[in-house]
């Protein structure tokens, strides 16, 4: 997690304008033009992943095939944020049925690990690394679930790019090189970490070649043996033996019993656009709750980046996140009033709690039922009109630090996100899915696809989704400008892991907001500071149905690429 620096002296850094030098047109903060193409588009956070997707599209694969290929490559080239030891969520627009499909490919907790075990150890929170936060990895089953329903090309072809680069090596890019030494310092005490991620004895530097032959072997077994090779075969047994050796609880039975779930995406209409998210156990509906709250304000009369804009945004976030902390969890264990939470009447009642002149220091979750009684994101589109919005993560960078013998990947620490307080929706239980931060998004207009997009970054993701939507719909930006615009974050809300909001929290702003805005926010009771690297990452494909043209955008804060043909 990024450490926030609230010192007011750091506000000086916010005064410098965020710009992309002297562009001929468009917003000054845009780093490049939108990429446009008709036959296919791929936007990922690494150029090699984008090229893998484009190769699959050009060779006759569809968007779903290409997304799988890109995700497999991402696990190799960006191991600090994702991999086959983590979970996956996706929203697919199927051109044949003209319908959205949602996939929840998140894993569950071990059968043999109980709440009493944590209590016996005197823990009030699940640790971020080691064997205890490890839950079943859902990524590989997610690939095969997507492929079975929508795929065209054989899986060995789709994984071939990642397998080849894992054997031959690839040059490490800037962002991964930045985080790699920290991973070794934190996890080097665990078996297989140094041999897998520092085979030369030190973290690879920018431009150094990195090879992961163990991951290549694992991907080959998955390509030829299918999902059962991972969940029921040799790989599952290796994970079982390793976790027992480490004092962990994940077993072969946990892996064998894993299934993904097809779910119905849910939506709200924001000024004529239907914004789609996946229901809990993910946090996607926080985006919809925020949009419903913000729709009550006329942003055509509120300048972008003004204190009025940011104050309304942050106060809406506080209200939505209070519900997020109370309600969001695995729906197989608790009843979650999703439709009530994302309803317009509920938003109208909650909006009354926003004081336009003062930052709230404490808010309570609503009761909508009374009406009744660190991640990667990628998106791909193809010539048939199929579009995929896919997000995948190990949760914190490099996951739990648990690297099973000879497999070449890290198991996730997503289990850190349970609460250990008894009686809450998200309280830990065996074979339960944890609260999830990763959320893909999709936008339709008049029943047709408009945009596939996502923003990475833990709890920031709903904020990032709302900012992209507002930037485009309220402030008229194109997809690239919407992602490059300076971002707003807020920390300090109540959390599904049990923490409670006790003060106004802290706003952090990227460079580019005027000091007048900061000064006004402080007068309203906000603490304002600067957060380094805490604003996520973004990819998007917008679709122009009239001309059948895709408009691709990539994340200026990452090492990504948007490409089409």
UniProtKB/TrEMBL annotation:
Keyword tags: Acyltransferase, Glutathione biosynthesis, Hydrolase, Signal, Transferase, Zymogen
Enzyme nomenclature, EC number: 2.3.2.2, 3.4.19.13
Reaction(s) catalysed by this chain's protein: glutathione + H2O = L-cysteinylglycine + L-glutamate; an S-substituted glutathione + H2O = an S-substituted L-cysteinylglycine + L-glutamate; an N-terminal (5-L-glutamyl)-[peptide] + an alpha-amino acid = 5-L-glutamyl amino acid + an N-terminal L-alpha-aminoacyl-[peptide]
PTM annotation: Cleaved by autocatalysis into a large and a small subunit.
Database matches in Pfam families: G_glu_transpept (PF01019)
Pathway(s) this gene product operates in, as recorded in its UniProt entry: Sulfur metabolism; glutathione metabolism
Signal peptide residues on this chain, from the entry's feature table: 1-20
Record InterPro entries: GGT-like_enzyme, GGT_lsub, GGT_peptidase, GGT_ssub_C, Ntn_hydrolases_N
Active site: 375 (nucleophile)
GO terms for MF: glutathione hydrolase activity; leukotriene C4 gamma-glutamyl transferase activity
Residues where L-glutamate binds: 458
GO biological process: glutathione biosynthetic process; glutathione catabolic process
Family of this protein: Belongs to the gamma-glutamyltransferase family.
Subunit structure: This enzyme consists of two polypeptide chains, which are synthesized in precursor form from a single polypeptide.
Protein name per its UniProtKB record: Glutathione hydrolase proenzyme
Organism ancestry: Bacteria, Pseudomonadati, Bacteroidota, Cytophagia, Cytophagales
Gene: ggt
